[in-house]
Amino acid sequence: MKEELVQRTLGDIGAVVVSHSNWLQQLAFDNQNLRQELLDLKAMLATLNNIDLDLYSVQTEFPIAIDSNDHIVPWGTQNDNTRSALFVRACERLFPEKPVRFLDLGCSGGGIVFDFLMRGHKAFGLEGSDFSLRSGRANWSVIPRSLATCDISRPFKIIANDLSEAVFDVITLWEVFEHIPEERLDTLMSNIKSHLAEGGYVFASIALEDDVVDGVSYHPTVKPESWWIEYFASKGLSFSKYDFLSYSEHCRGIGNGPLDPVYADRPEAGFHCTLRLITK
After folding, report:
1. What's the CA gap between 201 and 197, in Å, rounded?
2. CA angle 19, 114, 1 (to 5 degrees)
3. Which is nearest to 148 in space by CA: 168, 162, 128?
4. Residue 35: CA count within 13 A, CB half-sphere
5. Which of 8, 16, 92, 146 has the least C-beta neighbours within 10 A?
6. Pairing of strands 156-160, 168-174
7. Are 264 and 209 contained in the same domain?
């Protein structure tokens, strides 16, 4: 079964590498970002046989966040593909003895999932909009079996290949919480807690301002940091900022890309947080 998955995925990636090679040649290799994308694809193709493809699937009655502006009028999901090798290495420091089981909620282009897979970890990403899936953008053409669409504000369950209910050592939500309507936050929190392994970490960045593009608002839940701290505590999760990751080891809120704010320069824009289950 695993060998068949490897071969199918290798075929998918091989086709993408070829198409990207032709595309870059037509552009005379004059774009650094595109050259890097090709190098990433070739690296993935060369190393995939050594990756443990413990793939996941999602069970949900809400595969698309159909009433979210992030899907109706895509903006972040059609532009973002956050990457961070520094974050992956930070998680390896927290879990040095085993491959990290990683889940990215609101994964957009799937870049961080890609980074974890490239380091031999077990990773999966969920995205509310199907824009990237339909357009095959970013990593959706490269690691299609490690990304899926799902409205994370509705009940869902992730199943591992052995048919067990999956849990993860690290769950991330980079610039995601504020995109969820307040009345659905409880469901999101239930989803997070049911998929968080014992001793696991939830890392997030949360915006404190609305994001309005061409008159469209993308942040229905804009609350002060104190509100979020109290809310997380009410759900049985402790809150901290830089006890486990340094500022620069976070994936967002550090100027990591053209769409990313810099919290150090503009603390009113957002904050980082680490959440862990409160144990009695």
Report:
1. 8
2. 85
3. 128
4. 6
5. 8
6. unpaired
7. yes
Q: Is 170 within 8 Å of 103 (Cβ atoms)?
A: yes
CB 128 within 8 Å of CB 62 = no
CATH number at residue 108: 3.40.50.150
Entry pTM: 0.84
| Residues 36, 159 within the same domain | no
Residues 194-215 as b/e (b if ≥16 CB within 10 A, e otherwise) read ebbbeebbbbbbbbbeebeeee
List per-residue pLDDT tens for the chain, 280 residues long. Answer: 445 554 555 455 554 444 444 444 444 444 555 555 555 665 555 555 555 555 899 999 999 999 988 888 888 888 889 999 999 999 999 999 889 999 999 999 999 999 999 888 999 999 999 999 998 888 998 888 899 999 999 999 999 988 999 999 999 999 999 999 999 999 999 999 999 999 999 999 999 999 888 889 989 999 999 999 999 999 999 999 999 999 999 999 999 987 899 999 999 999 999 999 988 6
**Inter-residue contact 80 to 106 (CB < 8 Å):** no
Q: Which domain holds residue 29?
A: 1-50
Query: Cα torsion for 58, 63, 67, 72, to the nearest 10°?
Result: 110
Residues 254 and 139 in one domain: yes
81: nearest Cα among 139, 2, 124:
139
